[in-house]
From TrEMBL, chains A, B:
This is LacI family DNA-binding transcriptional regulator. The keyword DNA-binding applies. The keyword GTP-binding does not apply. Keywords: DNA-binding, Repressor, Transcription, Transcription regulation.
Amino acid sequence: MATIVDVAKSAGVSKSTVSRFISGKGYVAKDVQKKIEKAIEELAYVPNEVARSLTQKKSKLIGLLLPDISNPYFPMLAKGVEEYFYEVGYQVILGNVKSNNEIEESYIESFSMQNVAGIITANSENENSKLKTFNNPVVMTDRAYKESEYGVVSDDFMGGKLSAQEILKTHPKKILVVKGPKGLNSLEERFNGMVQVLEGKIAFDVYQSHSFDFGEVEQDAKIIFEQFKETDSMICPSDIHAIALLHEALKRNFSVPEDIQIIGYDDIPMSKFLYPALSTIRQPAYKIGMEAAKLLHALIDKRPVTEKKIMLPVTYIERETTRRK
Amino acid sequence: MATIVDVAKSAGVSKSTVSRFISGKGYVAKDVQKKIEKAIEELAYVPNEVARSLTQKKSKLIGLLLPDISNPYFPMLAKGVEEYFYEVGYQVILGNVKSNNEIEESYIESFSMQNVAGIITANSENENSKLKTFNNPVVMTDRAYKESEYGVVSDDFMGGKLSAQEILKTHPKKILVVKGPKGLNSLEERFNGMVQVLEGKIAFDVYQSHSFDFGEVEQDAKIIFEQFKETDSMICPSDIHAIALLHEALKRNFSVPEDIQIIGYDDIPMSKFLYPALSTIRQPAYKIGMEAAKLLHALIDKRPVTEKKIMLPVTYIERETTRRK
């Protein structure tokens, strides 16, 4: 690959002239500019990003921390982040944190060493997180939002309310609210929204799930069908939970939605392909990623930011796992 | 964040002594070493990776090119790559190429500018790809393999054969082979394997699909059910195709597998949660990512590589969308 020295030789000028031309700092005569441009084009010269990063203490890299990339919700969010930053000339380093604080710390340290220009995290909040001492801007999204200065999420409280309201309209006999893993702010909000709608209106059971992992959620589904035999309506904290419950219901020869109705959360790409197709609350994962990237980009460029925290609306997607009203 | 100057001050030594200590080049007295170590720990000093990258022309970064991160197969592969490199102190830059040559080129250019130590690509082969002129090692996987020097895939030809063999055992009346998008080597191999088993034994139709996109594959499924009314057995190039066909079959009130049987390819995490659960050929996506990372790491470290091309076995996962033999 061509170096700055090759460009200088080919253009018949000194290395420092080429350097002045590239950095845009200092005078370079018009005709010399043309010679250098021609040499750059002919040699397909790419100025070294690493050298730029070293002098400016800020690279063209973004760090993205995700709790679990095998959960189909997060690739959509990552896609939004990646597509925005691609357009503005940044690359995204992927950090799959697996909800492990040690891995998170280690990634933040690596990001510092790479002079990463900013971080977007969807990882859950962590009291002692090194993010708090990270020098460049940080935007929180999804599971991390409450304590942050800058963030983009969807309206989890409203989403929780919405799913409970939709179930209430269908004259449920006995409701089970499946609560997602503890300590995640977004899930607490959803649960609070659900409870606010249901309380005082109808009795309901609560089951505490501890995972988003397919295998573990499959076990939850088995326990739920053994334990809550009266339930005819299930409100879920994610589509993964809803899909596992739907599978278990059909395996046990229940009709869905006649015997058991199920409402999910997220609207992952697969949900509409289930049979019956899943009724769910749609979070705009791609848009959340895109907006978080846009906000982070403004912070990196030190442009004025009017909305430090952005909350995007959620919508109810009625499909076939809920009864008609 | 602490700098090398802070460390030097705190340890009461010169900056160049700290620098010698960190690089391991040159003599530093034992008691001075201890002082520096203590200062580094107290100040939580992180040596700048960018400076290291500049002198060595090789960063601790890996480039990963994927065709589409919203296809659930690829996050599993990415997870394998990321988890391997996390353990050995590298970070992975995500390039979601969207099967677009221009985006691929642009990413490869950016990777060069970042002094990326190596690239793993699952993107389809591209005659004029800039990968061929990339200075550091490249490992191809999944869709890109045939033309490459180093690669990790699963045995697509055997997978194709396996899916056709399993369908043949169930006494199919009329088979439809759904062929995946053209120009992807892995899909050609699968198709060739299927055809080799079926030809001369039974008549079969072929439908050419042009996408892995959920929306477009949904359209394919509608066309297929209109066009191939005799078909009772469908062999698919991916689980996405199989899921769309399963959904369409159930919507049209066919019994699966009694009226229509369907076999997928990949075994994405969702497949076992469908109802009926999907019979499919399992590709070890996570392991492919892991092995590709291991191979690339050996190349980066210039360790001897005995197997330049690794082909991992596939397995048939019998679930509920195929008839019992």
